[in-house]
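User: Please predict structures.

Assistant: First:
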Amino acid sequence: MGDFNTKIGSNKDHVACGNFGLGETKERGEMILDWMENNNLIAMDTCFRHRLKEKVTWVSPDGRYMNMIDFIIIRRIERVEVRDCRSLVSADCDSDHHMKSPATKPWIANECWRLIQKRKKERKRTQMEKATEQQLRGQRRP
């Protein structure tokens, strides 16, 4: 966990960044993108298309400047577990930063899906074994 306060934008040169960032990549942004890439991490905020107000994580006190400088960073392998990631504009947290919220798939749903896939494979294997046995029986009869 950290507070990097940097702009990474939608940098297509790095796999650690999605296509839906906000603004341009700054020097510190390049540094954090390189670090994320070396550690197989990804900024989930940049992976989902949202309206501007749902991308913005910081607003200046006068409201003139808006930036996306806070990110939810996870391991790249766990990217499939996240369904959505956005700023919560209506959350009142007494700060000039907006709260971030990732929507993840429920763990139980993933376990159920794996169990269903395992059962499908077992059924398919059983059906193939039955078909093979029937073929062998058919060859023995004549």
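Second:
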Amino acid sequence: MAKAIIRHNLPFSDVEYEGVREVHSFLNSTVKTISRNIAKVVVLRLYHDKMEIVKNELQAIPNRICVVDPLIEHFKMIDSFLCDGDFVHIRCANHILNVVVKAGLKTIESAIFNIRESIKYIKGSESRIVKFVECIKNLGLNMNGKLFQDMCTRWNFTYLMLDSAFPYRRAFSNFKLLDRDFKCCPSNDDWVEAEKIAKFLRPFYEITILFSGIHYPTANLHFHKFWKIHMLILEEKYSEDPNIKEIAIEMEKKFANYWEDDYSPIASMAVVLDPRYKLKLVKFCFKKLDPLTCNEKVSVVEDNLRRLFKEYKTTSDVEMVGSNSHGCDGEMLDDVEEFDMFESPC
């Protein structure tokens, strides 16, 4: 039963269901039933047994590998990390983006309220959906995509909701004429404000999708993608639009809690190892942020790389052969168009 609970993500209480116990008794009349607490103990025992097996297998591997909690503390104890494990931990990029964006969106709930409620109202009934589709057809609009409904736990659905609603803005006004109970039809001002917000959120959404890729390496993308987000937030802090300005201010507070302005030493080293960028991109980005601290930050990155290289050189005779990155070739260059023209005095 413990293996079934793990494999099928069943609740521990599953072992106490009368139907389940009847099946077990039918298959074996002498079977002893267990409680949910016993099931929990057995599942945890299986987990710890498997964890020990994984630890032993990883410890026997001679190559350098990437590990995550809770194995990190174990490897520190047996002194298996280079540089005392200083370059092991890196924060989840998409989690940070999620926290940063959600902090900003809390400030503009009223600006997108009517659009959110309109979509919720229309999608709440099959008959309303049919009416809305008729409105789209009568207006000669292309039905290229569905309306996304917002989800409070996932900010990217807020962006998708706004982006999916724009092509049908005339249909919402037309639907209002057919349904007297439709009280939350977005005004022209609502649409104008929503377009500004969606434009601001688009880079966050695109980078989240990029970081979620599984068919190409992503470690070398973090540094300049977070730099792009940081520069966008700093720029929009001075926006003439009060909603965008308020979003950017709240985002900057959260951003500083996680990254401040160095984007983690691991991310900066990873982009240096990308043969398309090397140290020049790090210099370019740091200079854009603050020319006065550029040299100091670049020196830290160089020192970290030398330290890591020195440990590899002294602890391993294995020749390290790199491979070309692929999967995002043309896409990444758009973010740093000025980079090709950059000549750093750093």
